Amino acid sequence: MNYFLTPAVDELIRLAIEEDLGRGDITSYAVLDGDGGVVKGVLLAKQDLVMFGLQVARRVFERVDPKIEMSPRVPEGARVARGTVLADLAGPAISLLAAERTALNFLQRLSGVATQSRRFADAVAGTKARVVDTRKTTPGWRALEKAAVAAGGCGNHRADLGSGLLIKDNHIAACGGVRLAVERARARAPHPLRVEVEVTSLEELDEALDAGADVVLLDNMPLPSIEEAVRVAREKNVLVEVSGGVTLETVAQIARTGADLISAGALTHSAPSVDISLEVEAK
């Protein structure tokens, strides 16, 4: 499960290491002799969480010093309890300490996204709806954050502007209306792509359906309107996505309307980092 370790991610890791270690580790050089000798340590969960990012952390340690050995104890995507040892580490003390903060920054952030995603997935369990992410990701981290979302049990929406056709409100404003935007998209888009369009009212929904939209995205609509929109769209076998201010407190209600997809930027932009530490054994 390391498809997300792309050249772009390797470059991100390089930049993160340079950011923290560019001028060397003054403290370690001051208190350790040579490389400090080989020490052992563990990555430890300090709270209940969903694990994701061990392969990224391993890559950080490898980049800092290939002599560091890391042996994961839990698989990516696993739910773990506070106090669980996530991985064993061994290597020169000076190298482990140099890589510690960068590896933890990746691990805590990505596990935070996976943990948040698991909460959303659990909230809609038993319904037909699937919660998916958005492009509201940390610049440069999109491949990693979307992989963390999937590990947490939610789905991925578009990876970028070229991976799906989604007509948003500003496209509609610039084009001149829902119907015209959908008709142009159907005429000009590559054949395999479904045409999805954002609508904000039942009137716009009717325009989108009459123009031949394949998917409708209901943006910031109240629950009664969502329920009616789902009923109308079902009659034409059109998929329904719901978006706009989706939270853990509201996602279950939205799911019960019968929507197919619920897109939530909160999976990534509002996911708090979790607490993970690196504990080195005392000599």
**Amino-to-carboxy terminus distance:** 35 Å
Strand content: 15-25%
CATH topology (level 3) name of the largest domain: Aldehyde Oxidoreductase, domain 3
Tell me the number of structural domains: 2
Spatial order of the strands forming the largest sheet = 6-11-10-9-8-7
Quaternary organization = single chain
According to DSSP, the number of beta strands is: 12
Biggest beta sheet attributes: 6 strands, parallel
Task: Work out the radius of gyration.
Answer: 23 Å
The residue fraction in helices comes out at 40-55%
Name of the level-1 CATH class of the largest domain = Alpha Beta
Runs in which pLDDT lies below 50 for 5 or more consecutive residues are none
User: What is the H/E order?
Assistant: HHEEHEEEHEHEHHEHEHEHEHE
Q: Which CATH architecture of the largest domain is right?
A: Alpha-Beta Complex
Going by CATH, the homologous superfamily of the largest domain would be Quinolinate phosphoribosyl transferase, N-terminal domain
Number of DSSP helical runs = 11
Please characterize this protein's 3D structure:
There is one protein chain. The chain is elongated, with a radius of gyration of 23 Å. The longest helix is centred in the middle third of the chain and has 31 residues, at 93-123. The chain is built from 11 helices and 12 strands. Helices cover 43% and strands 19% of the residues. It has helices at 7-21, 26-31, 54-64, 93-123, 142-151, 169-175, 178-188, 202-211, 223-234, 251-255, 266-269, and strands at residues 38-45, 49-50, 69-72, 79-80, 85-92, 130-132, 165-167, 195-199, 215-219, 239-243, 261-263, 276-280. It has 283 residues and is of the alpha/beta class. The chain has 2 domains: 7-115 and 271-280, Aldehyde Oxidoreductase, domain 3; 155-263, Aldolase class I (TIM Barrel, Alpha-Beta Barrel). Helix 9 (223-234) links the parallel strand 9 (215-219) and strand 10. Helix 1 crosses helix 3 (54-64), helix 3 packs antiparallel against helix 4 and helix 4 packs across helix 5 (142-151). The strands form 3 sheets. A 6-stranded parallel sheet has the order 6-11-10-9-8-7.
